[in-house]
Amino acid sequence: KSKLQTFSVPAEHACSWNVRRRNSPHVCLCMQNLKNLEESEKQLAQRDREKSAVEKALRTKDDELMGKIREADTAAKALTGCLLSMNETSSNLSKTEALLKKLTEEMKSLKEAKENAAAQLPNAIQPSSSPAVGAAKPDNAPKKEDGVNAGSAQDTTALDPDTHPKPNF
Fold first, then answer.
1. What share of the chain is helix, strand, coil (3-state, %, to 5)?
2. Which H or E run includes 59?
3. Segment Disordered: which positions (predicted)?
4. Strand partners, 149
5. Those residues with Cβ within 8 angstroms of residue 141's Cβ, 6 or more apart along the chain or in another chain
6. More confident residue, 33 or 62
7. In the chain, what percentage of residues exceed pLDDT 90?
8. What pTM, to 2 d.p., does this model score?
9. Can you point out the beta strands (E) in 12-168?
10. 8 A C-beta contact, residue 33 and residue 15
11. What is the pLDDT of residue 165?
């Protein structure tokens, strides 16, 4: 018999030895190692597929998250624009309110000045108690038969003596 059959072959080197007999313990070890190797390769392939699936799911989630981040950024920019517009409007409103308050105070002071001036005028000259200068006198006063007004003495003296001579009775 050959020398190769008398040596015992370690399991890690079983594939490199040239063995002629199929029923030898060395052939059984090689077959077992081959089965273990195939099983390990299947497990590695399965892990690679799982890893690829997880990476794909992570990329999908990452894309979704980036889309939501972009939407949030757009919304934040829009809100910032609205806040700036609101602040500007508020500032303009404050200026308008201050101007309105100032005008109201000026109107109030003018009314008070008018009332004070009216109070200082003599009662005979106040515009509410006497007609304005140059205003037409009412024509509903009773008339005398000769055409002269039958009003008070003040009515007859109010006429200019040069243009309206006194009637002789």
1. 65, 0, 35
2. helix 25-120
3. 111-169
4. 143
5. 149, 150, 151, 155
6. 62
7. 43
8. 0.39
9. none
10. yes
11. 64
What are the residue boundaries of the structural domains of the chain, listed by start? 3-120
CB distance 26 to 9 below 8 Å: yes
d(CA 137, CA 115): 27
- β-pair partners for 143: 149
For residues 37 and 15, what is the distance between their CA atoms, to the nearest angstrom? Answer: 12
How far is C-alpha 85 from the geometric centre of its chain's CA atoms?
7
Q: How far apart are the first and last CA of the chain?
A: 188
Whole-Å CA distances, 4 to 18, 19, 26, 32: 8, 7, 11, 20
Q: Which of 5-14, 42-51, 110-119, 149-158 is most confident?
A: 42-51
Buried b vs exposed e over 17-55: b needs ≥16 C-beta within 10 Å? eebeeeeeebbebbeeeeeeeeeeeeeeeeeeeeeeeee
Quick one: tokens of 152?
């008070």
